[in-house]
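Reviewer comment 2.1 asked that we show a complete input and output for one of the modelled complexes. We chose the 3-isopropylmalic acid case, as it is the one discussed in the main text.
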Amino acid sequence: MTTRSLFLLPGDGIGPETMAEVAKLIDHMNAKEGAGFVTDQGLVGGSAYDAHGEAISDADMDKAMAADAVLFGAVGGPKWDDVPYEQRPEAGLLRLRKDMALFANLRPAICYPALADASSLKRDVIEGLDILIVRELTGGVYFGEPKEITDLGNGQKRGVDTQVYDTFEIERIAGVAFELARTRSNKVCSMEKRNVMKSGVLWNEVVTATHAAHYADVELTHMLADAGGMQLVRWPKQFDVIVTDNLFGDMLSDVAAMLTGSLGMLPSASLGAPDPATGKRKALYEPVHGSAPDIAGKGIANPIAMIASFAMCLRYSFAMIDEAVRIEAAVAKVLDDGLRTGDIMGDGARPVSTAEMGDAIVAAYAAG
Ligand code: IPM
Ligand code: MG
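Response of the prediction step:
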């Protein structure tokens, strides 16, 4: 029998309660479909800091590296506001991304028909929306050196972060965006700030050259990232795939999330390069929302982004396309049936808890 190893890192805040709903799906698929998932669980973020003084232990890093895929919940919360910078909860996530070399972050923003009224934008602007943000994830200002605060000795300090991109980093993320565009509406919009940033000038040049050399069949446009943010809320359906750097991708994907009704709806996949020998990619799947400490532990969080992240895992790590489609259909079904967690509540809908939403999705999956 095939075994498929999953390493679960629920993390902090609403991470554990949303991960518990994915665990129900995994159990169901193992029991009823012989899916052969073998899971192990570790600590990341504040919970890891509490247990061993760092945001992820070396032992858990090793398990993440060895697994077929990692499912990640969320990290952070006010409890850890005062821990040293190097050990802050987010450092665990950044180490996973960097050490696993997960350079390609896929953030699809799909507006489920039933949720078109949950968005703060007008229905006709977002109805039928299906865009994909491809965010570079292991470079740019997140990791560039120097990264420091220095004392200038005159009562002033200086904070420095470094935005840096090499040609190969831009080429490989552009390649991912173009390849994915070919499976969708065949359009890529690249976003940077070439009007003020040298890294933006290079980004623009390399994306243009990569396109001309290998992907001329794909429609390519360029936009300054600020204008791109504006266009995302003005008329998001003009986009198919957006490719952008680490920091702009962070911001633009939160904007895109709200187009879909709630940050609680957006999944993501973070992928490494295919192994030359096996073709397998290292991969981590996580909801775009954070740990939401204000609602953690109340059983009211929306588990859909976490569940949809698991669907992405099935698609990208295990080529279980039918199962992924069925999970997505199950999500659409429960939304059509009017089930809503608080973040996507609307007139006449039925308020449900995290667990009720998870149970309903498993039931719809089983029936589908
Ligand atoms: C995200 C998050 C992270 C990021 C944080 C938690 C470090 O906002 O995945 O979008 O900035 O990348
Ligand atoms: Mg973010």
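The mean pLDDT is 96. We note this here for comparison with the apo prediction described in Section 3.2.
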